[in-house]
Structures are given as structure tokens and as C-alpha cells.
């Protein structure tokens, strides 16, 4: 679709930052498995982390479409930074903006909108995985406090120097799941060590443990017993955002492959002149283009207040597959260089697989799409 002036300028500003500031240094962060806090803070100054949040708290109130534009531009050069933003905004800060009390919003949203802090959404559990409704973590009310016991796994942004808040799902009664906010440093909260991951190595992903962790009763986010509904709604937005991220990754693989194919010579001519390579590039362009159409359509419906759950599933399914296929083709075009971690396409190859798993596996997306067809 054609962007308006505000959207064009915002996307251009994020693109310039990604190309000029993130791309030259992210490879070193990736190899070290180090979280690039200064880069994330600078994105906050650009307004990326507050783009969907209410204006009264310093955000732009611009909606999911604008966030998607930013995520796509960031993911063209690195998925680790992009998923840091995506998880904090769609699953974390948006939870406070949508369901939090006025007191919670006034306390946490200004820092989050300014990009000075991040949120971790602690949903996944060791025994649950895709079965997100199976919540073994429990919270009981005792003398005006929630006492939380349980464990979470694969939690993005759980242990960064910027983490302001962890929102955890927990059983608060028989058949009742609620969301509770826990601040880092709270007694009884333990942040586990960073995972050794295949990809997304410059993002922060850790287990989280609760052992008699006490927080005020007022830290309940949203209505008691509505946590399951809340996180399903957040996951719909998260799927659109992840589709935008996947589109950026697919586009980035095309960008890198096109430059390489025009410069790399074999048998006396650039490899781009070989029909097999040219057709591969054409297919990569097609995947990135259709993925972009899918996430943008879903985002526009979300911002208009229209039902978009099925559109989110379609976008996430298609874009994640496109990212995997483009990363595979890019490494093939790069040949031996594509197998070296110093190249962006090698990082994209390591990063892409989780896109078919996160925010609901692609099997779940197919299930949702099939249900929408009445089968």
C-alpha cells in the first residue's frame, strides 16, 4: 500500500538508524551473545518503543501498522533487536496500556513509551509450550499481597539492564488465570541464566522462577480471571508484529543476495546472470512482497477496530515461511560465505526457524485458519 507522509518519514528514520547504527556493529554483539542496550535506548529516542502507546503517557498512539513499519526496517538488518522491541511492546507495554489500572499506567507507561525500560511477558511454562492455557504457576492472596510460585521459560527481555517489569500469568483460583506484574528485584523472583540459543543471540531470553514472590494486590493487571482472554488478544497483535519482523528478515536476505549476486563472478560473469540465480531472486522478491501485503492488511484491520485474528494467523504463517525460504536461498546464493557467521545471511538462517515457533507455532496458525473456514 502507499504510505502517507508521516508513515514514510517514520519508516525512513528507522531505516536510516538500522542501516547506519545497527548494521555495522550487530555482528559483534551477536557473536558475543550480548544485549545491545544502547542501540535499544536509541530506538526508544526515535519513538519506536512508544509508537503504539497513548499520547498522554508520551507515546505516539499510532497503532500496530506504524510499529510494523519499524519492525520490518529493523529486521532487515537484525532480528535480535527487532524481537526485543516486538516482545516488549506488543506483549508487554500494550498489556498495561489496554488492561492496566490508571495507577499502573501512570507508573510504568511513561518510561516504557520513552524507551527507557522494557517489559517481559512471562507466559510459556516448561510443561505447557503451545498449550498456553495450561498454567501451573499459582498465585494466592495473602494479607493484601499476591504470593506467586512457579516457573516460566523462554521469556524475552527477562534479564536485561533495561527490564522494568515482568507480567506473569498465574492460576489465581480453580480454572482461573490472571496476569500479575512483578518488578525486577522483588524478593522471591529469580531470573535464570541466559539460554544458549541457535539464533536471536543478541536478544535476552531466560527462564524465570517464582518462589513465594510477594507483590501488592494492586499489581493485578486487568480483571481477575481474565488473563487467558487478555493474552490471547495480545498474541493476535504479536502475530502481526512478528509477521512484520519476518517480512523484514525476508527482505534483508533479498537485499544482501542481490548485491552479492551482482558482484560475485563465476566462470567469467556475475552469478546474477545465471537464470537459476535470477529466478531464485525473483522468488525471494515475491515472498517478501506478499508477506508485506499480509501483515499490513492485518495491521490496518487491527487499527480500525475490525476483527483480525484470522488475518494475523495468515500473516504470521506466510511471513515466517517466507523468512525461512529466503534465508535458505540467500545462504545458497552466498555459497561458502553463506555458511560463515560473519555474513548477515548466516545470521538470518540461524534466526529464521524460531519464527515458525514463536507467538504460536505454525501448526496453531493453520488450526486457527481452518477453524475460520468452518472445518
UniProtKB/TrEMBL annotation:
Per the record's keyword annotation, is Oxidoreductase included, yes or no? yes
Pfam families with a match to the protein in the record: Acyl-CoA_dh_1, Acyl-CoA_dh_M, Acyl-CoA_dh_N
Q: What is its EC number?
A: 1.-.-.-
Domain Acyl-CoA dehydrogenase/oxidase C-terminal span(s) in chain numbering = 225-373
- Residue ranges occupied by any Acyl-CoA oxidase/dehydrogenase middle domain in the UniProt entry: 120-213
Q: Can you tell which superkingdom this protein's organism belongs to?
A: Bacteria
Q: Which cofactor does it need?
A: FAD
Q: Which residues cross the membrane?
A: none
Q: Which UniProt keywords apply?
A: FAD, Flavoprotein, Oxidoreductase
Classification via InterPro entries: Acyl-CoA_DH_CS, Acyl-CoA_Oxase/DH_mid-dom, Acyl-CoA_Oxase/DH_mid-dom_sf, AcylCo_DH-like_C, AcylCo_DH/oxidase_C, AcylCoA_DH/ox_N, AcylCoA_DH/ox_N_sf, AcylCoA_DH/oxidase_NM_dom_sf
Q: Where is the Acyl-CoA dehydrogenase/oxidase N-terminal domain?
A: 6-116
Oxidoreductase as UniProt keyword: yes
MF terms from GO for this chain are: oxidoreductase activity
Q: Which family does it belong to?
A: Belongs to the acyl-CoA dehydrogenase family.
Name of the protein this chain belongs to: Acyl-CoA dehydrogenase family protein
